[in-house]
Specification:
With about 950 residues, the protein is mainly β. About 5% of the residues lie in helices and about 55% in strands.
Length: about 950
């Protein structure tokens, strides 16, 4: 009875106390942005732990006992303002305030959301406050560093490097270990040769923030061991801007250039010449060994010649336009929209050696000098609209990406170890085209007004298409600077049509969040329950055609104008085109992954936060294919891989001081193969090289451990050091073996037994006024990764491997990235930023050796860039970039631990220089 009386008394006291409180409320605005609302800024009662953050509309409210107080308004990168206020019982004080950029402190800042202001300092603070391991780069930093696309932007993050034509490597691990989200939704690749869509197709104009998660959390896909990249498209803002750019690269622009005649026109300038290279309807949808009549040939290929134009390469160019606007509606709701369109073209020349060794012997199989001439175009468009009400928001985004590459490649030397004839010329005429359209519907719902219960929903539909229409080859002996001597038969006059069509890709998510036990410092416990899934359905066709002779003929012709010779021989009955596709021409892939997850964030005291959960993924992968010897249109063989993966994770952060954290992560993830690593397609090149997928590969299981210490000496400084370790079961690796008949080189893929990786990461961002007041405008950034790997292989008498252990394929043991920045002003308006950015990665295995031959190694590549960004006026910005100043030689070499004598003078297999690039970009903001 006494306890009941005490309980009632306390309850009455609490109710009476709460009823006597007053409220301070208002709107915080950004005076540097025409007094637009300033969301997620900090509002604090000075001398207490009572505070809050402004919401997305800049609004705030604090309930407090009556008295005299000082209200502090602050945001990273902005001045702090203090306003005295008197609060009376049961009354509301309206206090609106505007703040702008100026001096500021980091103390007493509370962030309760992953919302980004796209500023470097805001993202650095977000990284400090987050429980999970996350690094971000925003629009501001990308602009300062001269970044023009997403792929380049990500190289500014610790442990990430960009490799020529092969995407991003994270902690030394190649593309297959990464994953991509766009606005939190799973996104497929547009290319079967890569795990994620080549991120250089995304211009930074359509990006607000790039988030990189190097450790697992249950709400993201379990398919990664390197990193998951989440691209957040641009945030709501009012802007209209047009950009124009031009670039010159030494030994690439203003040089002699070869271009397919059908691409050297207006259609080709915009990358629209693929329509003239499509497969003739005369061949039908199913291979039948059909031959084209002269009339059919002329009708089919009248706009698709074998000829190549000798021209010169002009400057690279780019253009971009973005318009974004936001409106406040009468009822207080908001609406914003964004439209952006970007395009660029580029001329790329690569010259260097191209060699292979005879497997198991010390002589060159191929010894060639390669020259390639690529005309590349990219185009992107984004349209988005978002409606925000008091209790919900909903947005619709759609973006389109298109890339083309019209390439002429000449390889001169000898093949098949025929060193007595060093003048064999192989010409490849190739056109690559990818189309990608992604439409997303995203929404957030506040189930209760206090935002304790929220719901996130989203879905996307993606359509992808990748094709190489009419990839064709001519082979002959070069007898002069312009002529070859050739005959029909063999690999001469071969044509290939590769088409990988993504029939559909659906991705969806549903997530419920419950927030409770919120503390005065803004922290709260959080329970998250969600589900997401994707289904990917695609079909590939790979059809091959040969020039079939009816009469032996040997002739000499100009290599660049050989089309009339070929056409005349077809019209005279000497030559015909016949399909030689096999039953393996078509492969189907259907993959579905359904996942559910639960995650719990718990605060223990004011310093320790633990975030733990589990994700369960049910994956079902079906491959349908036919072997070469089967009937062309016979029944498919089927391989089904169905598996349920339980993926637990624990993240923890301990706040050692107000400026330092200690972090921990332990998790399990998986790695799924890249499409071309999996599909049983043998992709053939005329020099004897080929790539063959392995449909029997298993997913890798990854066990991950990370620990990291972070120190934030100032609001714009960071010192961090971390240790990481991974055990990978069934790692997926690239291996080379002998081709059919013992000649050539076949690249394929296999699961090794297990791999162990362990290493350290160091990151620092320092203001150099620490050294001298004269360096107050300078800052220095450095990040490096050091790693060791050990792979245990399935070694035995039937193994392709040379040794029972080795290093992991695709992993660099060290990476260094750094930048030096100098900020200065010519006037109050003319602000400048100059950066020197350097990066290098250590040697890594490109492909695992076999039959006593050592591995193929990709050698270190040093890259130094200079970027100067300047604001010439209120409306005009200019960026000048010098790319690849060192112009290092890219090299791929055979290792020197071979079990036989090497008879050649060099182990160099591939080499080229990219050239130094000079570019100027001018933008005008209306």
């Amino acid at each position: 009875m006494k306890f009941r009386i005490l309980y009632i008394a306390l309850l009455i006291t609490a109710i009476s106390f709460s009823q006597n409180k007053g409220t301070i409320s208002g709107i915080l605005t950004d005076k540097d942005a025409s007094n637009q609302s300033l969301p997620f800024a900090n509002v604090l009662i000075k001398g207490t732990n009572i505070g809050t953050n402004t919401d997305i509309d800049g609004k705030y409210a604090i309930t407090i006992v009556p008295g005299n107080y000082t209200v502090q308004f602050s945001f990273v990168g902005y001045e702090s303002v203090e306003i005295p206020v008197t609060v009376a019982a049961n009354e509301t004080v309206n206090l609106n305030q505007a703040i702008g950029s100026g001096s500021y402190k980091l103390e007493d800042v509370v962030i309760k959301s992953n919302f980004s202001r796209e500023k470097e300092t805001a993202l650095l603070l977000d990284q400090k406050k987050a429980v999970i391991f996350k690094q971000s780069i925003g629009a501001q930093e990308m602009a300062r560093k001269g970044v023009s696309d997403v792929e380049e932007g990500l190289t500014k993050i610790t442990g990430i490097t960009k490799v020529e034509s092969r995407g991003l490597f994270v902690r030394g691990l190649e593309d297959r270990y990464n994953n991509l989200l766009i606005n939190d939704l799973q996104a497929p690749s547009n290319s079967p040769f890569s795990k994620i869509i080549p991120l250089d197709l995304f211009p930074t104009d359509i990006v607000g923030v790039l988030n990189v998660y190097k450790t697992f959390n249950p709400n993201i896909s379990g398919d990664f061991a390197g990193a998951t990249v989440n691209i957040e498209t641009i945030q709501a803002k009012s802007i209209t801007k047009i950009s124009l750019g031009a670039g010159y690269t030494t030994a690439n622009n203003g040089a002699d250039f070869l271009m397919h005649s059908d691409a050297n026109n207006t259609q080709g300038v915009f990358g629209l010449n693929g329509r003239d290279r499509q497969l003739s309807s005369a061949f039908g949808n199913v291979p039948t060994a059909r031959k084209l009549t002269p009339e059919q040939y002329n009708a089919t290929y009248k706009d698709n010649t074998w000829n190549v134009d000798e021209t010169s390469s002009p400057l690279n160019t780019s253009i971009g336009f973005i318009h974004s606007e936001k409106f406040d509606l009468v009822n207080g709701d908001k609406i914003n929209y964004t439209f952006s369109i970007n395009g660029d073209n580029k001329y790329v020349i690569r010259k260097g050696v191209d060699r292979t060794f005879i497997l198991g012997a010390g002589d060159y199989d191929n010894n060639l000098q390669k020259e390639s001439y690529s005309y590349q175009t990219t185009a992107s468009a984004l349209a988005g609209i978002k409606y925000k009400a008091k209790r919900f928001d909903i947005g619709l985004n759609s973006f389109y990406l298109r890339s083309t590459d019209s390439k002429i490649q000449d390889q001169l030397g000898y093949t098949n170890n025929q060193s007595t004839n060093p003048n064999i010329l192989i010409r490849t005429n190739q056109f690559d085209q990818s189309d990608y359209i992604n439409t997303q519907l995203l929404g957030n719902i506040k189930l209760t007004e206090d935002e304790r219960h929220t719901l996130k929903i989203g879905g996307s539909f993606v359509k992808t298409a990748y094709e190489q229409p009419d990839r064709k080859f001519i082979i002959g002996e070069k007898v002069s600077a312009t002529e070859i001597n050739t005959s029909y038969g063999g690999n001469h006059l071969n044509r290939q049509y590769l088409d990988i069509n993504g029939n559909y890709y659906f991705s969806g998510l549903l997530e419920y969040n419950l927030k409770f036990k919120e503390k005065e410092n803004g922290k709260s416990n959080r329970l998250t329950v969600g589900a997401n899934s994707f289904v990917n359905n695609l079909k590939s066709t790979y059809r091959i055609f040969s020039g079939l002779r009816t009469t032996n003929k040997n002739y000499t012709a100009p290599i660049n104008t050989i089309n009339q010779f070929i056409t005349d021989d077809i019209n005279n009955g000497i030559l015909t085109i016949r399909e030689e596709s096999n039953a393996d021409y078509k492969v189907k892939l259907n993959q579905m992954v359904n996942a559910g997850y639960v995650n719990y964030l718990h605060n223990i005291g004011d310093k320790l936060e633990i975030n733990g959960g589990i994700r369960v993924e049910n994956s079902d992968r079906n491959i349908e294919y036919r072997n070469i010897g089967q009937i062309i249109n016979g029944p498919y063989k089927k391989i089904n891989d169905q598996k349920i993966d339980f993926l637990p994770v624990v993240n923890a952060k301990y706040e050692l001081t107000e400026k330092s954290n200690l972090r921990f992560n332990g998790s399990k993830t998986i790695t799924r193969p890249v499409t071309m690593e999996l599909l049983p397609i043998q992709y053939i090149s005329p020099d004897g090289k080929s790539i063959l997928g392995n449909p029997n590969m298993k997913n890798s299981d990854n066990y991950n451990l990370d620990i990291k210490y972070e120190l934030f000496p100032k609001n714009n400084e960071l010192l961090a050091a971390g240790l990481f370790a991974k055990q990978i079961q069934n790692p997926i690796e690239r291996v080379f073996i002998a081709g059919a008949g013992g000649s050539g080189q076949l690249m394929t893929y296999q699961n090794s037994k297990e791999a162990l990786l362990y290493g350290a990461e160091i990151e620092l961002l320092l203001q150099l006024d620490r050294l001298s007041p004269a360096l107050a405008d300078f800052s220095f950034g450095l990040n490096t990764s050091l790693m060791k790997t050990d792979v245990k292989v399935n070694y035995g008498s039937t193994s392709l491997e040379n040794n029972p252990t080795r290093k992991l394929q695709g992993a660099s043991e060290w990476i260094v990235n750094s930048d030096l920045k100098y900020d200065f002003e010519f006037s109050e308006i003319m602000k400048n930023s100059i950066s020197l950015v350097y990066g290098v990665y250590g040697p890594r295995i490109f492909a695992v050796g076999s039959a006593g031959m050592d591995n193929i190694y990709e050698q270190p590549f040093h890259k130094l860039d200079f970027i100067w960004t300047s604001k010439l006026s209120k409306n005009i910005d200019v960026k000048f970039t010098v790319d690849n100043i060192l112009n290092s030689l890219y090299k791929m070499e055979l290792g020197n631990e071979n079990r036989f004598t090497i008879n050649e003078s060099s182990l160099l297999l591939e080499s080229f220089k990219r050239g130094r690039g000079f570019s100027l970009n001018l933008s005008y903001t209306f």
